[in-house]
Design a protein that fits this description.
CATH superfamily of the largest domain: Aminohydrolase, N-terminal nucleophile (Ntn) domain
CATH class of the largest domain: Alpha Beta
Strand order of the largest sheet: 3-2-4-1-10-9-11-14
Radius of gyration: 25 Å
Number of helices: 19
CATH architecture of the largest domain: 4-Layer Sandwich
CATH topology of the largest domain: Glutamine Phosphoribosylpyrophosphate, subunit 1, domain 1
Bound molecules: 2-deoxy-2-amino glucitol-6-phosphate
Structural class: alpha/beta
Length: about 600
């Protein structure tokens, strides 16, 4: 997902822009650029590769500018080259873009036929040329932005600066964009993520789709104005104080953000339980009390989809309400059977995943209510849902989702218990406190997991297996390992091994088997099958189980006692650590794995 930062104010825009882009690096990108308004000229500096390359270029020139925009690009249209990097500019404007212009091809053909020239292969430049064309006709910036934006289709966010003023213009459609200001320092900011504005902008504005925002600074004040496409003033935006503090953006004593975020889980579990059971979140959950529905349609991607598979079990086992769980990119195109008395539940950490957003839109078109389990307040998913169940995970910087998964599942469990009207049962709070304590204990001593990682990290492939409520955890454990260690890993239902995957087993393959107390005897046979084929067996199972421990090459003992509902979260934390330590031994970029973005805002 691309990162956007814009600044105008009395300071040097370079510093705020580069700091903001640095904070957005975790989202994944392949080139970076900045455009600065210097002495009524627009100067563009851009480089493919890491932000460091752009910083070197800037340090050579040491530019000073009160107004500028910056961008980290995750290529969608056009190869990874300096020409295709953003910003795209000409003698009048410079533009940065996040998203996809779906009718760019046709528009570019028309513009070329009219004699306009292009420097890049990108769709984004089509917006710049359209804007310039309309401005030359009208000499009115707002009108030109409105017309250019109305001409393009697809989900996009644009930030524009012009040679003629120090204003920042921006507009979006189903893509993240926020505006910030600091009235004390008379500065204005724009970004694709509020996280880039932490510590800079006390006020954050969340404009809705198709609202043109104009930020400007005079000697006396900073102003942020909003307009509809017909240029009438707009009130379609939300104002929020920027509560996040700087410490969410530092690793503290941890080597990686991912490790920090794994360690945060125990306390975040306590906070979320208190929020939803005892504090202001309770009234939100109480709206579900005794809720009747013909069924749930859960849709999500990646880790969030795995969380949905665990939540499905709660809705079906605790509430006896049918729950389907679809991968969002499949659901949106399968013409799903949806009935008015059902509910759509969309799970997303970022709230900006394009496929998940498309499913939400589909459900709303079909007239079924949209609920969300989401982390980012003010995100597109959040703003378009009928009910939001925030997971309050704080900013999750590691691309590999850890604390978000834990809190998504916990939120789903609390929703289920609210439907059952058992939020005040003492056993509920007890189990959650036990979960938090067990995870804290696990975090305090990962020596055994580190040792096992040392013994298996060079193996050729990994098959994670689990039964029942642990099957989703096998999938999630495999995804974590794939994502950050770049090794082949698959998750399977334990009973599926003999239906094919067992052909893979030999001395180069590791089977990581999750053995819950519930189906112990069944799983023993699986272990014997793998051992008989010289496979390496790592078992995550109940402590004090000598029979299984003897069968395993490596055993991670966990205390499942008192966790009848939440043990999948607990087991998953052990697998998070295993993936982390294997990745460390492989020397990969754990927080920013190759080819990945933190939020996939394109199809
Ligand atoms: C998980 O570790 C991945 N980063 C990825 O699968 C992620 O869960 C998926 O892209 C969904 O993102 P979302 O939760 O922001 O919608």
């Amino acid at each position: 997902m691309c990162g956007i930062v814009g600044y105008t104010g009395p300071g040097n825009s370079v510093h705020s822009i580069i700091e903001g882009l640095s904070r957005l690096e975790y989202r994944g990108y392949d080139s970076a650029g900045i455009c600065l308004k210097i002495d009524n000229e627009l100067q563009i500096l851009k480089k493919e590769g890491k932000l460091e390359n752009l910083k070197k270029l800037i340090n050579e020139q040491k530019p000073f500018s009160h107004t500028g925009i910056g961008h980290t690009r995750w290529a969608t249209h056009g190869a990874v080259t300096t020409d295709n990097a953003h910003p795209h500019g000409n003698e009048l404007f410079a533009v940065v873009h996040n998203g996809i212009i779906e009718n760019a091809g046709a528009l570019k053909k028309e513009l070329l036929a009219e004699g306009f020239l292009f420097k890049s292969q990108t769709d984004s430049e089509v917006f710049l040329v359209l804007l310039t064309k309309f401005f030359k006709q009208s000499n009115n910036v707002l009108q030109s932005i409105s017309k250019a934006f109305s001409t393009i289709t697809g989900n996009s966010a644009f930030v524009i600066i012009e040679k003629a003023s120090d204003k920042l213009y921006c507009i979006k459609r189903s893509a993240p964009l926020v505006v910030g200001d600091n009235k004390e320092t008379r500065e204005a900011f724009v970004s694709s993520d509020p996280f880039a504005l932490i510590g800079f902008a006390p006020c954050i504005y969340f404009p809705q789709d198709s609202v043109i925002c104009v930020s400007s600074v005079s000697d006396a004040e900073v102003s942020v104005n909003f307009y509809e496409l017909d240029l009438k003033p707009s009130t379609r935006y939300k104002l929020q104080s920027n509560a996040m503090t700087m410490d969410t953006t530092t690793k503290g004593s941890y080597e990686h953000f991912m490790l920090k975020e794994i360690h945060e889980q125990a306390s975040l579990i306590d906070h979320l339980a208190a929020y939803y059971i005892k504090n202001e979140g309770r009234k939100i959950l109480d709206e579900l009390k005794n809720l009747k529905t013909a069924g749930w349609h859960l849709t999500a991607c990646g880790t969030a989809w795995h969380a949905g598979l665990v939540i499905k079990n709660y809705f079906e086992q605790i509430n006896r309400q049918p729950a389907s769980v679809d991968i969002a990119s499949e659901f949106r195109y399968k013409n799903p059977i949806l009935n008015k008395d059902e509910i759509g539940l969309f799970i997303s950490q970022s709230g900006e995943t394009a496929d998940t957003l498309a499913c939400q839109e589909l459900c709303k078109e079909r007239g079924i209510p949209a609920f969300s389990i989401v982390n980012v307040e003010g995100s597109t998913l959040f703003r378009n849902s009928d009910k939001n169940f925030l997971i309050h995970a704080g900013v999750e910087i590691g691309v590999a989702s850890t604390k978000a998964f834990t809190l998504q599942v916990l939120t789903g469990f609390l929703m289920s218990r609210s439907i059952q009207a058992t939020l005040d049962d003492s056993n509920l709070f007890t189990e959650i406190q036990l979960l938090s304590a067990r995870i804290a204990e696990l975090c305090s001593d990962t020596k055994l997991i580190k040792e096992i990682a040392q013994k298996i990290y060079n193996k050729k492939g990994f098959i994670f297996t689990g039964r029942g409520k642990y099957f989703p955890i096998a999938l999630e454990g495999a995804l974590k390992l794939k994502e950050i260690a770049y090794v082949h890993a698959e998750g399977y239902a334990a009973g599926e091994l003999k239906h094919g995957p067992i052909a893979l087993i030999d001395e180069h393959i590791v089977n990581i088997a999750i053995v819950g107390p519930e189906l112990l005897e069944k799983t023993v046979s699986n272990i014997e099958e793998v051992k008989a084929r010289r496979g390496r067996m790592v078992v995550v199972g109940p402590q004090n189980s000598p029979e299984i421990e003897q069968l395993s090459d490596h055993y991670i003992p966990l205390n499942f006692e008192g966790l009848p509902n939440l043990s999948p979260i607990y087991v998953n934390v052990a697998l998070q650590f295993l993936a982390y330590h294997i990745a460390k031994l492989k020397g990969t970029d754990i927080d920013k794995p190759r080819n990945l973005a933190k939020s996939v805002t394109v199809e």
